[in-house]
Amino acid sequence: MLPPGMEAASVPGAAALGQTRRVGDRVGDGILHGLTALAALIGVAIVFAIVWRVADGAWPAVKLFRLHFLWAREWNAPLNKFGARDLIVGTVVTSFGAMLLAAPLSIAIGLFLSELAPPAIRGPVGTLVEMLAAVPSVVVGLWGIFVLAPFDAQHVQPFLGSALGWIPIFAHGQDKVESTVFTAMIVLTMMVIPITSSICRELFIGVPTELEEASIGLGATRWEMVRTVVVPTVRGGVVAAVILGLGRALGEAIAVSQVIGNFIPLKLSIFEPGDTLASRVAGQYQGAITNVQIASLIYLALILLVITFITNVAAQRVVKRFEFQRTGGA
Amino acid sequence: MKRGLALIAAAGIALFAIAAAGAKSNDTTISGAGSTFVSPLVSTWTPALGEAFGLNVQYSGVGSGAGIAAITNRQVDFGASDAPLSPDQASACKGCVQIPWALSATSIAYNVPGAPVHLNLDGKTISKIFLGQITNWNDAAIKALNKGANLPDLKITPVFRSDGSGTSYNYTDYLSAVNPEWKSKIGVSTQPAFPAGVGARGSGGVAGVVSRTDGAITYVDVAFALKNHIRFAAVRNAAGKFLFPSLRRITAAAAAFTKVPRDNEMHIVNPSKKAALAYPICTYTYIIVPQQTSHAPELRKMIFWALTQGQRPQFTAKLLFAPLPKPVLVASEKTLKSIHS
Amino acid sequence: MSEPALSLKATGRSRRRLLTNRGAEVGASAAAAIAVAALLVLIWSVGSRGVSALNWDFFTKGPAVFGEAGGGVAPALVGSLLLVAIATALALPFGVLAAIYVSEFAHPRFGRQVRLWLDVLNGFPSIVIGIFVFALCVKVSLPVVGWGRHQSAIAGGSALAIIMLPLVARATMEVLTLVPNELREASYALGVSKWQTVLRVVLPTSLGGILTGTTLAIARAAGETAPLLFTCAIAGQIVDWNPSHSVQSIPLMIFQNSESPDPNLHAQAWAGAFVLIVFVLVTSLTARFLLDRSRRKLGLQR
């Protein structure tokens, strides 16, 4: 802000000029302040409008099914019976399964590109990974249908089925169904890895070199340096990156619905078709046949909104705590 | 930067101006959405309609359920559905009429490597497959229908429409007619709760999954199966004959039902024994229009053309759409007259 | 006694430590290699299958009549262009203005709130944004021409704009905080008012960063499918520049064609994916270039 002593009018002899300028300036400042405030307000208002619209649209179903909706299994449009349990389970299984694979791989890529790789590789591969983060999900889904799913059905699933088939969730029949929960999980993994790994890479690069050199200087091996210096310094950031990826996986509708098979009730094995919240909304919202079904589908969107909101806030909390730790609370 | 902002503002204003101009000009664009079943036929009609009346028909095959929703919201000028409007849907649509404008069949398409080219199925067996009760291609029930055929030991994957679909309606209408268990457990619907299998969107979607999945079986309008070289089964009709869908057999099925009710709702599945040459899973498909619409003159022209010129073999034959029988044509034209602006 | 006093060969504990280190390094490198290889396979599949399907018809013709081969995706290309243009025209001014508010005008506490809610918006699943805009464009018929009661490019563009808004705003905020305060103070010292300082000094300095953010947001919006599913999906088969009509788009084309059984349509989907990826790569490279330039500029002025 302008200190009062610096206003144009305080310059001797310029009073007349300053008077007109000051009015113009005040108007200009006011207009710009107002305009920008309005834009910011609209940005925030959109968030609440979305929440309100979704809650409002879901209301008939919320009134009808109440919280029972969350653990009811049936999804039967002709009978107007709807429940979200299997869709919630499907969403959680695919997303957490994807993160279980994506998180270690992303951290490995981050470490590789910041600590291990020869400098000549770091730049190009780093750029590549960052760009892949912008590959649209529908393209990953397309690849999922035509390249990944047949490969999964012919090689990966029979192999895992024969190795781990005694665990019910890996039970594998003789069939060659390509659209499965497992395939959806891998598609989500592919979608999320570039996002989380490019964040991890930046975090690891950001660790002060002095810390790393001090550790090496004290005789630590590279792995000990990573374990005792690099990882603890950026732990919060890595957790936040993983949660961020999780949020993307939870909300993904298109790539999942391309490969998951759109079927409930969910079966125990991940080598069977399934469905998720977002995928069901994408598949049925446009052709819903009754008002109860429309409201139920928006109820699904509401559940999704709540889940992603929680993960987002969690990520922000983690980042905040992490910043707090790093700056010593300053 | 100021100039940049000004440019952006100008671009925004220009866009809205174009929008205003576009909305005000009396363009003869007719937009429609719905049934993927009828979309191949509409796609062959479109160029001819453009030549005949200068109409620009924009049709989008998003599924019958979505088509009904779109016309109910008046997002489009017409909807198309293979399923008749339910009483609830009819009242929600506020003054819509349904006009039968095409006639074809639903095929039972399958992808079984090593299976015979001529596969026989009957309604009971098909319904049990989709109920998840028959799960293997070498099941005794299928073998009994195909004596001497070499059927592989392969799991059956039923593939169904996950979106709201008139083909699903037609198909479940048939299954309910032949199997009481289907009728009581699942019923007739555009979006039935299938107890087994894999879901896909649109005729293209189910045909796509079947073409990629060994052991898959689905129901899809016969044009999609033909065009994509997917085999389909001969289905046993009430007279005990195993028949493939063909123009003659669709016409025979339609001929078994001559009474057209006031709301034009026709069910022509599983005709009685007397129609010995009838394919059992046929359906009319409907165009749904509001009785009062600003596009009434264009819509009347378009629908009348579709009911008459549009039924000629040059458009319909290779897609296996049969010409509308006389009583239905009369009823359709009568309903068409009630559309006004 | 010929044994050396000091052996350089690690034994016992050190040996174990070195082995662990080796193992960890190999493990991390292998994991990274697997992941990068999988990503490369993805790019390679799109590249090899996409390029072979590209031809002149692809860019100039509409979809083929059912049952015929050939055809192209010209309507979808034009539609995507239109959608992204509308989305940018809406998101850019709002995003930049909101960012200016946060970094130049707002009380820090308000600023934090705005930033927080924009982050929340960024985390919303895009399908939910589609439902929101669908509810606006069908249930409400505003007197604005081309809006309401039907799907349109404007509705689809608005949905994409909601996705772009937080991206543009966050990028702009970040670059505005990089503008050295000395610049603002110098301007004030010359008696220049605040609004002129913002428009003539702060914004031009951060233009590069704003463009970077916008470019990245455009790359994201161009590939979004879910928000268009309910807002701009019922479209005709011809090239249509009218924003009050519903138009085809590349992502929806890929989505629909990917599920069909027709190899001809698959080829179009791959070619569309290739075009999208090339677009994304070119925009991110441009963004990177712009960012480097603006960083250099800011660095020199400091």
What do these coordinates show?
The complex is a heterotrimer of chains A (330), B (341) and C (302). Helices cover 73% and strands 1% of the residues of chain A. Chain A has helices at 15-65, 85-116, 119-132, 137-164, 181-206, 209-217, 222-251, 254-259, 277-284, 291-326, and strands at 75-76, 81-82. In chain A, strand 1 and strand 2 (81-82) form a beta hairpin. In chain A, helix 2 (85-116) runs parallel beside helix 5, helix 6 (209-217) runs antiparallel to helix 7 and helix 7 packs antiparallel against helix 10. Chain A is flat. In chain B, 41% of the residues lie in helices and 19% in strands. The longest helix of chain B has 23 residues, at 2-24. The N and C termini of chain B lie far apart (51 Å). Mean pLDDT of chain B is 89; it is low at 19-26. Chain C has a single domain (73-301), classed as MetI-like fold, CATH 1.10.3720. Chain C has ten helices and no strands. In chain C, helix 3 (74-105) packs antiparallel against helix 4 and helix 3 packs parallel to helix 6 (153-178). The model of chain C has no long low-confidence stretch (mean pLDDT 87). The chains are: A mainly alpha (330), B alpha/beta (341), C mainly alpha (302). Chains in contact: A-B, A-C, B-C. Chains B and C meet through helix 1, strand 1, helix 2, strand 2 and helix 9 of B and helix 3 and helix 8 of C.
Apparent shape of chain A: flat
What is the level-2 CATH architecture name of chain C? Orthogonal Bundle
Largest interface: A-C, 91 and 96 residues
Q: What is the chains' assembly state?
A: heterotrimer
| CATH superfamily heading of chain C | MetI-like
CATH topology of the domain at 86-289 in chain A: MetI-like fold
At the first level of CATH, the class of the domain at 86-289 in chain A is Mainly Alpha
Beta-strand fraction estimate of chain C: under 5%
Total number of helices of chain C: 10
- Secondary-structure class of chain C: mainly alpha
Which architecture of the domain at 86-289 in chain A does the CATH hierarchy give at level 2?
Answer: Orthogonal Bundle
CATH class of chain C: Mainly Alpha
Q: Which spans of chain A of ≥5 residues are poorly predicted at pLDDT below 50? A: 4-11
Secondary structure category of chain A? mainly alpha
Q: Main β-sheet of chain C: number of strands, strand sense, barrel status?
A: none
What's the gyration radius of chain C in Å? 26 Å
Note the overall shape of chain C: flat
**What's the story with the biggest beta sheet of chain A?**
2 strands, antiparallel
Element string of chain C (H = helix, E = strand): HHHHHHHHHH
